[in-house]
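User: I'm preparing a small set of examples for a lab meeting where we compare how different chains pack in three dimensions. I only have the primary sequence for this one, and I'd like the structure in token form so I can line it up with the others. Please keep the answer compact; I'll paste it straight into my notes.
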Amino acid sequence: MPHDTLLEFPDPLVHAERPDRPYYETGALLDAEDFSDEQTYHRARLARALAWLHGAGTIAGLRVLPPAAIGTAPRIDHELVVQPGLALDRYGRLLEVPRPWCLRLNRWYDDLAAAELGRDQLSAAFRAGAFGGSVVVDVFIAFENCPRGKTPSFADGAVDATDATVPNRLRDGFRFLLAVRDDVPADPTDPTSLPVNRFSPLAPGADANAIRDALLDAWNDRLARPGVALARTQGQPVTVDPAAVFLARMFIPAAAPVGDAAPVPDFAAMDAGRIDNRSRVFVLPGDLTARLGGL
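Assistant: Understood. Below is the structure token output for the 295-residue chain.
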């Protein structure tokens, strides 16, 4: 049967627990699962190495810029821009944004404010003391399989069909999540549960034996952590992907909510000073680490 939604293409890396690879022999019959397992094995081994050697976070780029006004009255949109860049998530998957990516911030806000649940969450996220009044929102990027093209296939399951199709390719894609900070969960700017920070107890200038002991105690099979915030689609709560990479915290200027209404945003007044790009986790390249270490 045709595949209609991205939800039908979960990433096997999330559940790949054993490094099993297909064994081939002349005369053995192969099916689609064998080729899928072959891909998963190589992807999972590479991802495992990346996650444990480098941790998760921003490798380069992905700066979040203030929204720019586009269009003409009566429909003026305010586009939030994420610059091109590369990140590594908690499963060791690369997230590459090849060009500037635009998000219609006002449309997302309006959609959320149109639902009672969304209005309540936006009101709860309003901080009177933040820059004189702001709604606090976090920006995340998450991995997503993106089907590309179509090719004929056999119908799946108890279905009599001769025109079934499946994607011709799956692209390693991404999606951005906007999470209203309507409560105080574990702060995404404090990634103490990530493998990259498993050496946090080490004191500056630790000796060789302390480093060896830290490595001996460093095993932690949690490559992902619980969801830390809520994003929403059409006013309905959606838990942020636990493997999503935190990029920035935004303070959207707004007037205090009145009654049951949501805070009234002023996107035109949102400048670079209201976007915190530096609290994210960075993955340091080897040449930069060498320079910082004076090597």
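A couple of notes for your slides: Confidence is low (pLDDT under 50) at residues 1-6, 224-235. The radius of gyration is 23 Å.

User: Perfect, thanks.
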